[in-house]
């Protein structure tokens, strides 16, 4: 109950209790004092009675003395003490009577006293009267009769009794007053002591109750401050300290939770940090690795950031360009490295810009030259590739370039070889061709057999010519020197033009060519015109050669996504499955094909495939029982691919 | 009579061409190499020149260049007859003033004579060529 009081209330209650205790002590003291005071009054009263008793005896003695003087002298002046004595004695008795009203014993004695005093007074008056009448002797006789003495003795005895009574009372009252005084003093002392003790106890209880809670709370607070979050404060009181302790406890719990959360977060953070550190370590290791790889690569490599500034520059790049790593790192690449067109020295670094704008790998255009630090011109080739951040944005570019001086030389040698081979192989073939042609013009003198020989020589020469041409094309493909120049062409018109050129051959073989262009109108394709012609020539002549006479060869043209697909279908026999996979291989001729046409080189489809692919297209065929055999190829549309020079 | 200079180092070929052009009514002169060709064109005027490219002493390209740079000779019509057949060769020859380009193995002599006649009928000594090189001739060069 007390616990639940507020501190103010507790203090008030303590104080009030102490005040009440002191009030009680005071009241008791007051009562004691009043009793003591009353006892003192009674004592004084007794003294007064004793005085009056004495006064009665004195008055009577005074009166007796006056009487005696007057009797002896007859002088009136002796009557004065006599008269005064007589006059006052009754008043004295009255006073005694009044003072002892509460004492019946004394009242009774007063009655006796009054009678004795009256007797005395009478005796004295008789004598005085006798003397005044001059009867001295009578008067003396009375005096000597001891009558008066006896009365006086009686009076004295009675007054003595009365005095004794009063003295007895005095004794009693004195004792009572002393007792009362002692009691009062005792009450005051004990009461004060008790009050003090009680007040101290109450104060102690009150303070203790407060101090205990405060101490508990304080200790708990200190513990919490130290970081011990598990210390509980068990204070059940509803006073301010109780509130405070609960608030602190709540704070402790909140802090604990917060700490817990903090700890968990810290743990998570630590884990993350470790991961990040590991990742960083890995990254820096990877970086070092990449750097080592880049440095040891045989090509010139430099890396630029999104601000075109060079961040990595490898040894070969230094070797080719003549710039040291120090001279270029942190600089814009185009301030130090000048890639120009071989022809006109115009800056040719669009491929780098293109990487940034398209996010794709871009090759340097042909005939790019790097101007070295010393001004020397180095033919270079290769490409630039983007590296992207997590969002897929181009955050830098790796440019790879190599000195192609030697490659150029090798290319030149290759080209030289092709030229020489072309020339050396073709010259005798041309001679034979032209000689046969001339011979045929003047074949009138020859017999039929000779004419037939001549025809066979002609056919063989044509085969030889074709074989030489195919071999040269193959060499070019193999050596990578086959050049094509892509142009924008109208697909339908190009095919129509081709059909026109091959019509005669088809007719000679008793075939009709059907062009199925469907609803295709103007579609601009991008391809080298000679390539398109050659591919069509190859596939259509094959379709004619490998199908029975009086059948149709159908050329179909349609759009397929970003490509134009041209299909050539014939009614020829199906291509056996086992031959299908080898059809585009170099020098491969299917046994079934050999049977139908003996003069193939086995290079046509290989060349066609290479040409189509070089122009960004695909090639394929479909040959199944009961269906037309279809060869198809695709050509990129202009909308898909911008014109590029290769 | 139409005058033609055939520049060809292969005797067999020059002989066939000479016979055929002669039969067709041309006055044929043969040069066996580039130097000889230059000497001859400087001495005489021709309606047409058939020019081989790979030759000793002075090759066909050098001849073309020299003629192209010579104001007196640049009106001479020249048809290249060669067994070189790459785009580069063809382009280079045409850019140096050749009117047409034949790969020998791919064309019979009759075709060459036909072409020669066309140029001749347009009139020799005209520096403006009306007719573009034939589509087929050029387009077949890749083969």
Summed up, what is this model?
Chain A has helices spanning 7-73, 79-99, 104-132, 136-144, 147-226, 240-296, 315-321, 325-328, 333-336, 350-358, 405-441, 448-479, 491-508, 529-545, 577-580, 591-596, 604-614; strands at residues 300-305, 310-313, 338-341, 362-363, 368-371, 377-388, 394-403, 487-490, 512-516, 524-527, 552-560, 563-570, 619-622, 629-636. With 646 residues, chain A is α+β, with helices and mostly antiparallel strands.
Notable traits:
heterodimer; A: 646 residues; alpha+beta; seven-stranded antiparallel sheet; five-stranded mixed sheet; 13% strand; disordered C terminus; B: 143 residues; alpha/beta; five-stranded parallel sheet; 6 helices; 5 strands; globular
Please give the structural blueprint.
The complex is a heterodimer of chains A (about 650) and B (about 140).
Chain A: H1 7-73, H2 79-99, H3 104-132, H4 136-144, H5 147-226, H6 240-296, E1 300-305, E2 310-313, H7 315-321, H8 325-328, H9 333-336, E3 338-341, H10 350-358, E4 362-363, E5 368-371, E6 377-388, E7 394-403, H11 405-441, H12 448-479, E8 487-490, H13 491-508, E9 512-516, E10 524-527, H14 529-545, E11 552-560, E12 563-570, H15 577-580, H16 591-596, H17 604-614, E13 619-622, E14 629-636
Parallel strand pairs in A: 9-11
Antiparallel strand pairs in A: 1-2, 1-7, 3-5, 4-6, 5-6, 6-7, 8-10, 11-12, 12-14, 13-14
Helix pairs in contact in A: 1-2, 1-3, 1-5, 2-3, 3-4, 3-5, 5-6, 11-12, 12-17, 13-14, 14-17
Chain B: E1 2-7, H1 11-23, E2 26-31, H2 34-43, E3 48-51, H3 60-68, E4 77-82, H4 87-95, E5 100-103, H5 109-121, H6 135-139
Parallel strand pairs in B: 1-2, 1-3, 3-4, 4-5
Characterise the protein shown here.
The complex is a heterodimer of chains A (646) and B (143). Chain A is α+β, with helices and mostly antiparallel strands and 646 residues long. Chain A contains 17 helices and 14 strands. In chain A, the strands form three sheets. In chain A, strands 1, 2, 3, 4, 5, 6 and 7 form a seven-stranded antiparallel sheet that branches. In chain A, strands 9-11-12-14-13 form a five-stranded mixed sheet. In chain A, a hairpin with a 4-residue loop joins strand 1 and strand 2 (310-313). In chain B, strand 3 (48-51), helix 3 (60-68) and strand 4 form a beta-alpha-beta unit. Chain B has a five-stranded parallel sheet with strand order 2-1-3-4-5, sandwiched between helices. Chain B has helices at residues 11-23, 34-43, 60-68, 87-95, 109-121, 135-139, and strands spanning 2-7, 26-31, 48-51, 77-82, 100-103. Helices cover 41% and strands 18% of the residues of chain B. With 143 residues, chain B is an alpha/beta fold. The model of chain B is unreliable at 124-132 and 134-143 (pLDDT under 50). In chain B, helix 2 packs parallel to helix 3. The A-B interface holds A 415, 418-419, 422-423, 425-427, 429-431, 433-435, 437-438, 465, 468-469, 472-473, 476, 483-485, 497, 501, 529-531, 533-534 and B 10, 12-13, 16-17, 19-20, 54, 82-89, 103-106, 108-110, 135-136, 138-143.
């Amino acid at each position: 109950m007390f616990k639940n009081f507020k501190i103010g209330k507790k203090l008030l209650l303590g104080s009030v209790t102490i005040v009440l205790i002191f009030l009680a002590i005071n009241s008791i003291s007051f009562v004691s004092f009043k009793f003591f005071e009353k006892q003192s009054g009674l004592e004084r009263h007794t003294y007064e009675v004793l005085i009056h008793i004495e006064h009665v005896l004195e008055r009577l003695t005074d009166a007796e003395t006056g009487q005696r003087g007057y009797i002896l002298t007859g002088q009136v002046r002796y009557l004065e003490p006599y008269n005064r004595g007589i006059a006052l004695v009754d008043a004295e008795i009255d006073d005694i009577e009044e003072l002892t009203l509460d004492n019946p014993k004394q009242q009774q004695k007063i009655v006796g006293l009054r009678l004795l005093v009256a007797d005395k007074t009478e005796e004295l008056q008789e004598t005085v009267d006798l003397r005044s009448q001059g009867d001295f002797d009578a008067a003396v006789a009375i005096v000597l009769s001891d009558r008066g003495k006896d009365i006086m003795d009686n009076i004295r005895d009675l007054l003595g009794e009365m005095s004794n009574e009063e003295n007895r009372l005095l004794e009693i009252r004195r004792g009572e007053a002393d007792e009362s005084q002692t009691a009062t003093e005792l009450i005051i002392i004990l009461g004060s002591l008790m009050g003090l003790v009680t007040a101290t106890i109450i104060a102690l209880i009150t303070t203790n109750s407060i101090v205990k809670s405060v101490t508990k709370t304080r200790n708990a607070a200190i513990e919490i401050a130290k970081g011990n979050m598990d210390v509980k404060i068990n204070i059940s009181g509803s006073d301010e300290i109780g509130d405070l302790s609960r608030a602190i406890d709540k704070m402790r719990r909140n802090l604990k939770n917060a700490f817990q959360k903090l700890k968990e977060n810290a743990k998570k953070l630590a884990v993350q940090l470790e991961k990040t550190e590991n990742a960083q370590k890995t990254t820096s290791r990877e970086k070092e690795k990449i750097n080592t790889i880049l440095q040891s690569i045989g090509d010139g490599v430099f890396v630029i950031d999104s601000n075109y500034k060079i961040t990595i520059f490898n040894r070969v790049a230094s070797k080719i360009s003549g710039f040291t790593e120090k001279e270029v790192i942190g600089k814009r690449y185009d301030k130090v490295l000048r890639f120009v067109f071989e022809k006109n020295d115009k800056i040719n670094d669009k491929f780098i810009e293109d990487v940034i704008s398209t996010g794709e790998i871009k090759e340097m255009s042909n005939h790019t030259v790097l101007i070295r630090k010393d001004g020397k011109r180095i033919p270079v080739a290769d490409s630039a590739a983007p590296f992207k951040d997590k969002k897929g944005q181009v955050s830098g570019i790796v440019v790879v370039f190599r000195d192609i001086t030697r490659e150029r030389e090798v290319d030149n040698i290759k080209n030289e070889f092709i030229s020489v081979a072309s020339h050396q192989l073709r010259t005798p073939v041309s001679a034979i061709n032209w000689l046969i042609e001339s011979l045929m013009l003047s074949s009138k003198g020859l017999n039929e057999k000779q004419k037939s020989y001549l025809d066979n020589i002609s056919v063989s020469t044509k085969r030889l010519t074709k074989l030489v041409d195919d071999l040269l094309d193959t060499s070019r493909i193999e050596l990578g020197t086959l050049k094509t120049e892509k142009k924008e062409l109208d697909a339908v018109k190009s095919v129509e033009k081709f059909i026109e050129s091959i019509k005669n051959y088809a007719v000679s073989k008793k075939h009709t060519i059907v062009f199925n262009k469907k609803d295709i109108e103007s579609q601009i394709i991008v391809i080298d015109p000679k390539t398109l012609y050659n591919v069509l020539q190859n596939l259509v002549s094959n379709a004619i050669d490998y199908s029975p006479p009086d059948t149709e060869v159908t050329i179909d043209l349609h759009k397929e996504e970003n490509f134009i697909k041209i299909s050539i279908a014939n009614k020829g026999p199906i291509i056996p499955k086992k031959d299908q996979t080898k059809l585009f291989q170099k020098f491969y001729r299917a046994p079934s094909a050999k049977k139908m046409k003996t003069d193939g080189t086995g290079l046509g489809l290989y060349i066609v495939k290479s040409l189509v692919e070089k122009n960004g297209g695909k090639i394929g065929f479909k040959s199944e029982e009961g269906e037309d055999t279809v060869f198809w190829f695709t050509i990129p549309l202009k909308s898909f691919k911008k014109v590029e020079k290769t | 009579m139409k005058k033609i200079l055939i520049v060809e180092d292969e005797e067999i070929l020059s002989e066939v061409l000479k016979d055929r052009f002669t039969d067709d009514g041309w006055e044929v002169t043969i040069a066996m190499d580039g130097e000889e060709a230059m000497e001859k064109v400087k001495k005489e005027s021709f309606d047409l020149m058939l020019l081989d490219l790979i030759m000793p002493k002075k090759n066909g390209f050098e001849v073309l260049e020299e003629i192209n740079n010579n104001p007196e000779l640049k009106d001479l019509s020249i048809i290249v007859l060669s067994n070189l057949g790459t785009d580069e060769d063809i382009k280079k020859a045409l850019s140096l003033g050749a009117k047409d380009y034949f790969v020998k193995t791919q064309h019979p002599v009759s075709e060459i004579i036909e072409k020669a006649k066309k140029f001749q009928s347009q009139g020799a000594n005209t520096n403006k060529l009306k007719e573009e090189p034939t589509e087929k001739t050029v387009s077949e060069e890749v083969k």
